[in-house]
Amino acid sequence: MIRAIRVRKNMQVKTQLDELQNYLTDASNMAGGNAAQLFIPENAAEVAAIFGEANAAEIPVTVSAARTGTVGGAIPFGGYVISMEKFDRIISIDREKRIAVVEAGVILADLQKAVDAEGLFYPPDPTEWSCQIGGTVATNASGARSFKYGATREYVKGLKIVLPTGDTVSIKRGEIISADGESIGFTTDQGNRVTAKIPTYERPDVRKNVSGYFNDQPLDAIDLFIGSEGTLGVITEIELSLLPKPEGFFSGVVFFENESELLAFVDEARAISFSSRNERGRTTPSASQPPLLRKEGSFTLDATLIEYFDDRALSFITEKFPEVPPGMAGAIFFEQETTAENEDVLLEQWNDLLEKHNADLDRSWFTTTEQDREKMREFRHALPVSVNERITRYKQRKVGTDMSVPDENFPGFLKFYKETLDASGLDYVIFGHIGDCHLHANILPKDESEAEQARHLYGRFIAQAIMLGGAISAEHGIGKLKSKYLYVMMGERYLNEMAELKRAFDPNGILSRGNMFDAKFLSK
Q: Residue 77 carries which DSSP code?
């Protein structure tokens, strides 16, 4: 029997099913969530007290943020739930140093508004801005702008963490480094030493990957917690680096009648953007660089994002945007930062590149105003909303892919997607982050028979991505729903290495059981 934890009298503790219900599910709609108690602490000391007693009794604990995740990571299956909703303070924003310090429960949209008011910019932009910052760090959230700015990891300078043992630790980037695969260690605030062996698997050469613990060398200790999906500790406070707010943007939603022309445009826009960054002494945040295709003085283009919609996605979205021209093979949504000095030149250069690849310029949409740019972003975000509305009408769950593959294998993988889905006869749409060679194929089954067929196709896509040297999850994470696929990607040896790492921080395996890998690996 689970015993009650002795908590501070002001902390909210809930035990009734109707009080717990909202904390037993997330955006994955995974069924079966249950818990004995819900705790809503207001500070790290209260979190530490919960863990100290839960660890001693070996009671599982699940952390609940905004529950916007799509892989079941926040769904408890027994034990306790800790909600971070009271950790909602923006502690400070330093305009000169371009640093924000926030509690883990701060909502992303609130942070974006606060830094914007200071003339600053926080780039990570996952589709759902109602997420909590702690959740975005735990999942290394990315989104459309990662094409230029990288994922959340690029902006995390410091973390305060409560470990599953109840110990606390503060980690600053650059202070604790593992080189050449050596173990990494630190001393907690309570004086206890934690030492962990780094997993030895080789990470896929892809632009986006959140499949397993980060292990690049040299390895900063802070990066173990970023993207660890809440399996190593609970983040309570975050120090983030910010950028100057861009002066302006040029945005376009561009339609193509021919998909090969669309893909050729993307290839050239991507290569030119990377070349431009290299010439300014900047590098892309992920995969190896393509060859420099830009001739001296010919382009200064540098896209912030390059997003894709296939023909089915365009047909789908006409319910909300009837002005979408009919008969298009696909569309690209792109953005470029501008200034008053370079805006006219950049608009002309984008126009030249689009003309070269036979875009339908007369029926495409362009803007330099903030108001119209937001409408274009609404267009981008309306698609997943429409997909969810349709699948709800079918009383089914969508089957959505999140794989990434190396640049050179991306065209073949997209072709495999389309040929396989067309042959299946199932409803689907393909959209997403084509600049990062990462698309979402959403299959929309109408009944249980089609749902079973869709799950089978998902397995085929997983196998194909792995065969091409890719990752099974580029941005959504593993959670509970994809743990069996991580086993396929990693194999038993590397999952055992991941489990050994987790045991260094969580010796009794109480935190986020079932996330990333089966709990059976923790018993070895």
A: B
How far is Cα 175 from Cα 13, in angstroms, rounded to an integer? 37
Q: Where are the alpha helices (DSSP H) in 333-409?
A: 343-356, 370-393
In sequence order, what are the residues at sequence separation of 6 or more whose Cβ sits closer than 8 angstroms to the Cβ of residue 414? 263, 430, 439
- Which range of 275-284, 287-296, 337-346 scores highest in mean pLDDT? It is 337-346
pTM of the model: 0.91
Q: If pLDDT is split at 50, 70 and 90, which confidence band does 446 have?
A: very high
From the list 102, 105, 138, the residue with the least C-alpha distance to 122 is 102
* Nearest Cα residue to 310 out of 387, 248, 251, 222: 387
d(Cα 150, Cα 474) in Å, to the nearest integer?
12
Judge whether 87 and 212 are in contact, CB under 8 Å: no
Which region holds residue 92: left if phi is over 0, alpha if psi is between -120 and 50, else beta?
A: beta
- Distance of alpha carbon 440 from alpha carbon 29, whole angstroms: 18
d(CA 201, CA 211): 11
Q: Distances from the Cα of 480 to the Cαs of 131, 229, 275, 277, 416, in angstroms?
A: 19, 10, 39, 38, 27
